[in-house]
Design goal:
670 residues; mainly beta; Immunoglobulin-like; eight-stranded antiparallel beta sheet; six-stranded antiparallel beta sheet; 4 helices; 5% helix; globular; disordered N terminus
Length: 670
């Protein structure tokens, strides 16, 4: 070889890297289904400055080969050698990047793998694939394993009609909360080690529908093995579409999509390499949720509300679902009252302009978080359920984000120092399960939410202070219950057990009509009812409709009824009515017109010796303007009697006698 050729070969090798021998190492190569930490990806032998694509597949049969139509793409992202994307000089920690920042044909990236309960944490075999969008090197496959945590108890059984199927245990009150999951064998057999507790068990697979509403409910005791066979509903139509980063934008691959129907059925899927999704469903209205964490990994915001698609009339084909690229960042540190960092907290953001988009980030070991956002105001808070499992309660903040800018927002949380345990019961003694209990600390305005268990039990982790405790009124009303309200004193390091919250069954109907003194109905009036039973308060409310009528559902007892706001419609607020309710009762109201407000008078100098008087009062009403030279034994002289315009304004000029004081007054003309 000539010397010049040697130099050329050396230069090409440095510039291109070893394009024929790309390598990928994933560390650790195996984790448990409860692992919460990063995965380190080391990539070698790619062209300098090259962009590479990393995909993660669920290798259902564990043969180490990606098989089209069998193995499912569950994650995908791109990396560029030497590039760390930033916004406003700040790195979006949710988006994987080449952390060494050097253009050297080697990439070192960290993949957030802390979403315990996500589809990537189901026990089974997986494959990481490294490829080049320009075919600069041969694709590389690396096996990865998620193992089942060795609990002493388990659930076992067979899934009928299984084909590439997973089985998960979920919170019965919140099925989106996956506790543990595993991959079923080719014949549908599964064994799922799990913690002791109460669960719903679900089987999920592409092309089949899961009957969520009738999912088996299991009570797994310590060291117990529970048997439960499972099956699917057969789908008869499809919902297909593409997930994009904006209208006409780029496709978003490897994003989990969960579809739940109004009839209580569930379908789980993923977007493919082209951002497409194909969900096999039944005739119904379906709510589609796209994983906010996976969208954040792709540099996008997620959705606050599900995407609703109606398949009652047949398949829904070719829907475009558009999210947005994050153009700004909100970042900060989450710390407790002693300034210690809080790791593993989920931080959420909600756009306050449209209430359409939401975003998600997770704090690292130092308590730092990053949210990718769009321009505008965002409501930022630690997600209460996750924060509660970490032993904290958190505050919220409203942050104004600007495009191409990183905005700082630290979040303070308080450590839980006491637990209040008890049950939710109705007035017949029956438990109230799966209802949201809310406690609000009155000094720091911190909220804690929990959901009651199947037997109505709950545990509230709080700290010393005064707490207002109630339940979600809408949830209670939908069950025909009235939620209690009470104040609870909590001391640090003092637990309270056996606490009972008593719901009243709303078995009595209160009806009535609100009219004025001429008998005309008054609409849109807020009608409220309140009952005190010892230290516990119960409330309900409603509005009058077009004919002035209203209906409330209450329980027997001594109720106080009130109306508001009547002054906005020109009426006086009547005194509350105390009513002893023993059965269905009519409570009518006749309200009187409010007296007109007194007029106001503004005076300003418009020229030397000349004043302008502006009267503000009722529209189209006659007023009298008068003046006096002294307020002692005042003698009032008529200046003007006239009618205000429809807006209640009347303007008049006056030129007083030079050197003499002049006082003005305005009054309704008798």
């Amino acid at each position: 070889m000539k010397l010049g050729s040697l130099f050329l070969a050396t230069w090409l090798g440095a510039a291109l890297g070893n394009a024929g021998a790309a390598g990928l190492t994933v560390s650790p190569a195996a984790v448990s289904n409860l692992y919460s930490g990063p995965l380190t990806l080391q990539i070698t032998g790619v062209p300098n400055g090259a962009t590479v694509v990393v995909r993660m597949f669920h290798d259902f049969n564990g043969n180490g080969v990606v098989e089209a139509g069998a193995d499912v793409l569950i994650k995908q992202f791109s990396l560029t050698d030497g590039t760390i994307p930033t916004v406003g000089g700040r790195t979006n920690a949710n988006v994987p990047a080449d952390l060494d920042g050097a253009v050297n044909g080697a990439l070192n990236a960290s993949l957030d793998f802390r979403n315990v309960g996500g589809m990537d944490h189901v026990a089974g075999k997986y494959l990481f694939q490294l490829s080049s969008p320009t075919s600069a090197f041969t694709p590389v496959l690396v096996p990865f394993t998620v193992t089942a945590t060795a609990f002493p108890q388990s659930v076992t059984g067979t899934v009928a009609g299984a084909s590439n199927c997973i089985v998960v245990l979920v919170n019965p009150a919140r099925p989106a909360d996956v506790i543990v999951g595993t991959t079923a064998a080719a014949n549908g057999a599964y064994t799922l080690p799990c913690p002791a507790g109460q669960f719903a068990v679900l089987a999920l697979q592409a092309g089949s529908v899961t009957d969520l509403a009738n999912a088996p409910q299991l009570n797994v005791g310590a060291a117990q093995t529970v048997s439960q066979d499972l099956s699917f509903l057969n789908s008869d139509r499809s919902i297909t579409g593409t997930l994009l980063d904006g209208p006409g934008g780029a496709p978003l691959p490897g994003v989990p999509v969960s579809a739940q129907s109004s009839g209580g059925n569930l379908v789980q899927g993923f977007t493919d390499a082209a951002g497409g999704f194909n969900l096999k469903v039944l005739g119904d209205t379906w709510n589609l949720d796209f994983s906010a964490a996976d969208l954040a990994r792709l540099g996008c915001v997620g959705f606050h509300q599900p995407v609703v698609l109606d398949a009652t009339g047949g398949s829904v084909i070719g829907t475009s679902v558009n999210t947005l690229r994050a153009t700004g960042l909100i970042y900060g540190r989450v710390a407790d009252e002693t300034s210690q960092p809080v790791a593993g907290a989920y931080i959420t953001g909600l756009d306050l302009a449209l209430y359409t988009y939401a975003t998600l980030g997770t704090t690292d070991a130092d308590g730092n978080y990053t949210l990718g956002v769009t321009e505008g105001d965002w409501f930022v808070e630690p997600r209460a359920d996750r924060l509660g499992t970490l032993g904290y309660l958190g505050r919220t903040a409203v942050v104004t984000a600007t495009a191409a800018t990183a905005t700082a927002q630290d979040i303070n949380v308080r450590r839980v120092t006491a637990v209040v345990s008890g049950r939710l019961l109705d007035d017949s003694g029956a438990p109230v399960p799966a209802l949201t209990l809310v406690a609000t600390e009155t000094t720091f305005n911190l909220r804690k939410q929990v959901v009651s268990g199947p037997d109505g039990t709950f545990d509230l982790g709080l700290f010393g202070g005064t707490w207002a405790v109630t339940c979600d009124d809408f949830e209670a009303e939908m069950r025909g219950l009235l939620a209690p309200r009470l104040t609870l004193a909590v001391q640090d390091n003092v637990n309270q057990n056996g606490f009972q919250l008593l719901f009243l069954r709303s078995t009595v109907i209160i009806s009535g009509v609100v009219t004025n003194t001429t008998g005309a109905p008054i609409t849109s009036i807020y009608v409220s009812a309140s009952l005190n039973a010892g230290a516990t308060n119960y409330q309900t409310s409603g509005f009058t409709i077009d004919d002035g009528s209203y209906t409330l559902r209450v329980a027997p007892g001594n109720w106080q009824f009130s109306l508001s706001p009547l002054t906005d419609q020109g009426y006086q607020n009547p005194a509350p009515k105390d009513v002893v309710v023993t059965g269905d009762t009519v409570v009518n109201w006749s309200v009187t017109t409010a007296p007109p407000p007194p007029p106001s008078l503004a005076i300003r100098l418009v020229a030397a010796g000349r004043f302008q008087l502006t009267l503000t009062g009722q529209g189209n009403t006659q007023y009298t303007l008068e003046y006096a030279s002294s307020l002692t034994n005042a003698v009032w002289t008529l200046l003007l009697t006239n009618t205000t315009d429809p807006a209640g304004m009347l303007v008049q000029e006056d030129t007083p006698v030079a050197g003499l004081p002049r006082f003005y007054r305005a009054r309704l003309t008798p």
